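Troubleshooting entry. The earlier prediction with flavin-adenine dinucleotide gave an output that would not parse, so I re-checked the input for stray whitespace and re-submitted. Clean input:
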Amino acid sequence: MNRDEMISKITETKKIYDFVVIGGGATGIGIALEAAARGYAVVLLEKSDFAKSTSSKSTKLVHGGVRYLAQGNVGLVREAVIERGLLAKNAPHLVKDQSFVIPTHGLFDEIKYTVGLTLYDWLAGSLSLGKSKRINKKKTLKRISTIKPDKISAGVVYHDGQFDDTRLAINSLQTAVEQGALALNYAGVTSVLKNDNGKICGVTFVDEETGITHQLNAKQVVNATGVFADHVLKMDSPNAQKTIAPSQGVHVVLDQSFLPGTDAIMIPKTDDGRVLFLVPWHNKVVVGTTDTPVEQESLEPVALEEEIDFILRTATRYLTKAPKRNDVLSVFAGLRPLAASNEKGKKTKEISRSHKIFTTNSGLLTMVGGKWTTYRKMGEDLVDQAEKNQGWPKTQTQTKDLKIHGYQANVDLHNPLYFYGSDQELLLHLAKQNTWEGSISTALGVIEAQVVWAVRFEMARTVEDFLARRTRCQLLDAKESLEMAPKVAEIMAKELGKDLEWQQQQLADYKAVTANYIL
Ligand SMILES: Cc1cc2nc3c(=O)[nH]c(=O)nc-3n(C[C@H](O)[C@H](O)[C@H](O)COP(=O)(O)OP(=O)(O)OC[C@H]3O[C@@H](n4cnc5c(N)ncnc54)[C@H](O)[C@@H]3O)c2cc1C
């Protein structure tokens, strides 16, 4: 994953690629991985950093979606729980079994959730992560010491997966590259190319670092740009209909003392009928989310005051220690790329979360909707559709058993570097050899070698890439991440051959963007 090497490989040949995938979030990465694994020649182009947009702002759950089961969407849940099992098997260093406790209010609740979650387990079959069960009030209070006793009658425990979204993005891309794909960040597609028959045969893209425009030829161009899908559709046809209804979801991050222990809490019905999760993550607690329709898509959406208030207010109803604004270590917002077509007038929480594929007259394939949990299956479905559209011989998926880069079973979750999986040994070797063992943050357990590693092997190009997505410092403790930024800039500048002016600009940029994560 060396950017200079990638860009020369992509631009030096006049090759016609099988696939050019536009967008380096969960969707684009899942497609590139599947296509490369089936032996196709693939290039993935990402305008910003990989997973910069929605794919870094998830609730960090690999889940079937208990809520969708309640809505009777059994097919969607079945697909997702199977994918959950496959992901836990193929990326055990990033996906772990997470137990959730649903606090119940009376016998009806207890029966409803016990029965519902037994069905949830049953749908996963042999890929279930653990059995659901009712636990009495005493046991519930023992497992979750900070829950208000007067709020509950008992609890129902169930299991889902929990993961690190951007680490999965980077490791999946590395896997795709190992399968022969080429991938480039800071490469924004600006137009699609068409042949004499009006069929799309490539794209132009700008190297955002140099400003140079390049042209790429491809048999199949794929639009995997999430909430930005309509922009690419307009490149294809200026009169293209609107297909996306973005909906914002906000999370706040709190200290572990608000939810000590290993269980997460799932509140199935908040005041306005939503679901709220409180999930332990990297020694902090992620609390969210909201579901607020927004008009404008953005790479850096900003949490609304009412969304923050709603999360803190709902958590306060359940926790003995009420979280206040100044307890919030970070707040982040992401936009769901919900498919809007044919579903006008519905509230966003009712709009289908399943993925959709459609082909334009000129052959552009667009994939919208879906979720991180099903990114592999989305890749499979898209490549199947491309084979059909192109009249290529039908091939089988190659990703069901494909181990994700860094694969390591039985990682020690107490080790702050656990998420590197099998790379950890190499990283520590690099640290020892070059005396890069110095700490950048003792609070977040980050060492200097991680910066060098991110630049050399994970295509980190900016201070934000490192602090927000190669590590999760910005989301875990935004103020602490600002303290770390100067050291990160200094190490990156050395690795990338940049000057003091670059460092200063990086710090200013990082400070500006991180201001949105601090209350
Ligand atoms: C609040 C919230 C919580 C969620 N929680 C979960 C969860 O717990 N579990 C789960 O499974 N799913 C979850 N999801 C869903 C999941 O995060 C999304 O479905 C997924 O991340 C969408 O990925 P994407 O690749 O389609 O979009 P994005 O991540 O937005 O990626 C699209 C990319 O395209 C790039 N792009 C745009 N235009 C261009 C261009 N012209 N050229 C090149 N690149 C371009 C953008 O920069 C962007 O990086 C959640 C979503 C939200 C909003």
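This one parsed fine. Residues 199 and 362 are 4 Å apart (CA to CA).
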